[in-house]
Amino acid sequence: MAVKVANYEFAGHVSRVVRFFSDLAIEVERRRARRMTRAILTGLTDAQLTDIGVNRLDVFRMR
Questions:
Q1: In this structure, are residues 41 and 54 in contact, taking their beta carbons and an 8 Å threshold?
Q2: Percent of the chain with pLDDT over 90
Q3: Cβ burial 50-62 (10 Å sphere, 16+ → b, else e)
Q4: Alpha carbon of 62 to those of 13, 17, 31, 45, 49: distances in Å?
Q5: How far is CA 15 from the centre of its chain?
Q6: CA 19 to CA 24: how far, in whole Å?
Q7: Secondary element (H or E) of residue 1
Q8: Residue 3 to residue 9: CA distance in whole angstroms
Q9: pLDDT reported for residue 34
Q10: CA pseudo-torsion sign 26, 31, 33, 34
């Protein structure tokens, strides 16, 4: 019985570690996408930004 409990606890820790790295990879990809989007929007003119319903301040506030 004690071995089954130890295996379950070990599996629980492993799954948390895997989930941590999975979440980390997802967050890194989201940040990369935000940086790319912000860079593209920064390159647009004010008229182009207005056409898509965004202004310079919106681009500046992007995180």
A1: yes
A2: 67
A3: eeeeeeeeebeee
A4: 35, 30, 11, 17, 14
A5: 20
A6: 8
A7: none
A8: 10
A9: 94
A10: positive
CB 55 within 8 A of CB 49: yes
Dihedral sign, Cα of residue 41, residue 45, residue 48, residue 49: positive
Q: CB of 41 within 8 A of CB of 49?
A: yes
Which two three-digit tokens encode residue 45? Answer: 């003119």
**Residue 28 · residue 10 · CB < 8 Å:** no
In single-letter form, the type of residue at position 25 comes to A
- What pTM did the predictor assign? 0.68
Token pair of 15, please?
Answer: 């799954």
Residue range 49-56: mean pLDDT, rounded = 94
The letter for the amino acid at 11 is A
Q: What angle do CA 31, 43, 27 make, to 5 degrees?
A: 5
